[in-house]
């Protein structure tokens, strides 16, 4: 049973999906990714890799005037683009974001999977998605092998993110409110702990000349250990 929100998938936006996907495979020895034709509706191509029972996705614009293309321009290059959180009660999560005045830019409701993408101007730092899966260990967005089931997979998975934003404390509080958890802060960074999932979201000041975005991902059991900079994101092993 899913006791609280869990970071299940992180998306990196790249100019060339195949190039960055190839770099990830060579760095970490991951199995060939799933390519979802459904992202074509957003004008994208993608590649979804399995990391434990979580997922790292690479997306790239396939046509002009896409949200991903605009992000590349704002960010000044490649970087972390989306954070997809699995929630135990999607109706409650949707009611919560509505009460917070957060705009929704896309929804999908399928028998085994549902998702809600939130407006990045209302939840700064990335496109946040609130998703639900049945059974909880499945994840349709990762392809047929994960649709309505969970295949055999290795241990580990995503344990945390670092997100660069203009106002870390405010952003952390906003993400925490959206996720229905609390936030803590100090002089340097603000942190949202997903305690049931053993994950941490760390918010830091954006560097000069860069837009907001995800800049680091930690993964338990990451082959090679890292940190390795790929697609504008630092990937590192979380030794726990």
Give a written overview of the molecule.
- The protein is an alpha/beta fold and 240 residues long.
- Helices cover 18% and strands 38% of the residues.
- The protein has a single domain, classed as 2,3-Dihydroxybiphenyl 1,2-Dioxygenase, domain 1 (Roll).
- A hairpin with a 3-residue loop joins strand 5 (104-109) and strand 6.
- The longest helix has 12 residues, at 17-28.
- It starts with 5 loop residues before the first strand and ends with a strand.
- The mean pLDDT is 94.
Short description:
The protein has helices at residues 17-28, 67-75, 90-99, 168-179, and strands at residues 6-13, 44-51, 54-61, 79-86, 104-109, 113-118, 127-133, 157-165, 183-185, 190-194, 199-205, 213-220, 228-230, 233-238. The protein is of the alpha/beta class and 240 residues long. The strands form two sheets. Strands 2-3-1-4-7-6-5 form a seven-stranded mixed beta sheet. The protein has a seven-stranded mixed beta sheet with strand order 9-10-11-8-12-14-13, with helices on one face.
Largest beta-sheet details: 7 strands, mixed
CATH-level-4 superfamily name:
2,3-Dihydroxybiphenyl 1,2-Dioxygenase, domain 1
CATH topology (level 3) name: 2,3-Dihydroxybiphenyl 1,2-Dioxygenase, domain 1
Radius of gyration, CA atoms, in whole angstroms: 16 Å
- Using the alpha-carbon principal axes, give the shape: globular
Return the structural class: alpha/beta
| Number of DSSP E strands | 14
**SSE pattern, N- to C-terminal:** EHEEHEHEEEEHEEEEEE
Residue windows where pLDDT falls under 50 for at least 5 positions: none
Q: What is the CA–CA distance across the termini?
A: 22 Å
Strand order of the largest sheet: 2-3-1-4-7-6-5
